[in-house]
Amino acid sequence: MEDGALQGLIADPLLRQVLACRGVKNADDVQVALKQLLHYRDLKDIELAAKLIGEAILTQQHFLIAGDYDVDGLTGTALGVRALHALGAQQVSFYVPSRYEGGYGLSAEVVKAYAKRGVTFVITVDNGISSHEAIECCHKLQLKVVITDHHQPQATLPAADACVDPKREDCRFASKNLCGVGVLFYVLLAVRAYLQKAGYFATHPRPEMENFLDLVALGTIGDVVPLDANNRRLVKSGLKRMALGKTCIGIKSLVQRCKLDLAHLTTQAISFSLCPKLNAAGRLKLASNPAIELLLCDDPKLADELALKLEMCNRRRGDFQRVALKEAEEDAKSQLEQSVLVLHREGWLPGIAGLLAGKLKDLYQKPCFVFTGDDELLQGSARSMKGFSLSQMLNELNLSQPELMVRYGGHDQAAGVVIRALELPRFTELVNQAALKCAVCEEQLLSDGMLPVDHYSLDFARLLESYGPWGNGFPEPCFDGVFYVDSVFYRASIRLILKLEGEGGQQFSAFKIFPSQAEQQICAGDKVKILYSLKVDRYAAQEKLTAQIEMLERL
């Protein structure tokens, strides 16, 4: 792609090429400033949703924020509670479901329970687009309900009072990639505008919505939605606020617990350090979810205790996952000739099914369903690679076999499904038949080329970092090259550390997380080809150049 339009903006020609290849064309694309954020007006139903919520605030209705147990749903729930209070709502309850009791999304039972507690207005976040029964229950109990979601709608929308979802076919919003917390953030922007027009802020403090961008950034990164220009604006602004210390006390405590630097927090650090701990509590069977408690906590001492609790949850999750993964790999060996892996064991925790499916998908380069449960119904999680859409396959399967699945939902690369235990063999057969109609191809790793010798520097690594956020849909720059291995050692048994030297004399340290068996055989003196990204290694107030290896091959 041509980078001529960027010449007056970026001095380094390699960086211009990297950005141009990712669709960056002009100053606005480079800056991804919050002032360029897409306006909410094109989101279908958003004006109606803002009016309903605004009037409910004016009349002091009792709100329920109904969220989800993943990072997107947790941050969305926290955003809803914090922002509604800031807008003047006095009564705001929240509900985060458990994988073990009630499962995903809003249910009629939950609606009835909160109606008894006095709730009169329900707002969903990161769910609701398929909750027909729960929405009908809201109307029977005379509760107003606004859906905010980002999942793919089915043929018929629930009969909510307003339904804001950028994936609606009749929604003209330019970005379809908002996550759940992002959609709710837009709705709350519109609510503030409605209250502004009503003259409400003449007698009430007007909240700065930027104060909530830390939650929006965390949820957007955690849900791995594509980082298009609009999502990058949200994430970059949220990271900037975090760097200035303008973030929730709970997030500060979790960052400290992870031994990260708030001033230099990256999307990768959030993805691999913060998000697993926030998710961990929902993967275990607990009486309450300390993750949502942490995001709503304003007491530093309590926040530290909750952050420690999440770390302990994550360690327990890791123990369960290691045992189950060995079992799953054994079971998968009998299905390697199939296009799709479909696995089930009664003892596997529902909370780690998605993690198992993801590991097996990466290991065998096949879509994978992992089912758990020993009752009449089996709960499954699925993961797939680019080029094979789970949501499309499940939608088509539901049209042809409407009795096969009890419920399902999700995205192209991640989905959930519930089936009757007796249907597992037929489900396995049908998804494999469906896979034959869609080419299942291995994921490809793309390179930005060979890095010039003079670019192996801490300054260039810092420069690349500054032009983030990088992530899904806006991939971090990766380079390839051939090097000699000077030395090899391990850290914590999961990280392979190599000292490398190039033919141009460049020397640097590189690491590979979870090396394969073949990669573990590499020795000093070997010649290797690698695909890698440059990193700034920060430790004990010092910075040095390092590289993260994505692909490693002995020559």
Report on the architecture of this protein:
By secondary structure, the chain is α/β, with parallel strands linked by helices. Among the domains are: about 170 residues, inorganic pyrophosphatase (n-terminal core); about 100 residues, Diaminopimelate Epimerase, Chain A, domain 1; about 100 residues, Beta Barrel (OB fold (Dihydrolipoamide Acetyltransferase, E2P)). It contains 17 helices and 15 strands. The strands form three sheets. The protein has a five-stranded parallel sheet, with helices on both faces. A five-stranded mixed sheet has the order 6-7-8-10-9, sandwiched between helices. The longest helix is centred in the middle third of the chain and has 33 residues. The protein is globular and about 75 Å long.
The helix content, as a percent range, equals 25-40%
User: C-alpha Rg, in Å?
Assistant: 24 Å
CATH topology tier name of the domain at 40-206: inorganic pyrophosphatase (n-terminal core)
Quaternary structure type = single chain
Based on Cα principal axes, name the global outline: globular
- Low-pLDDT runs: none
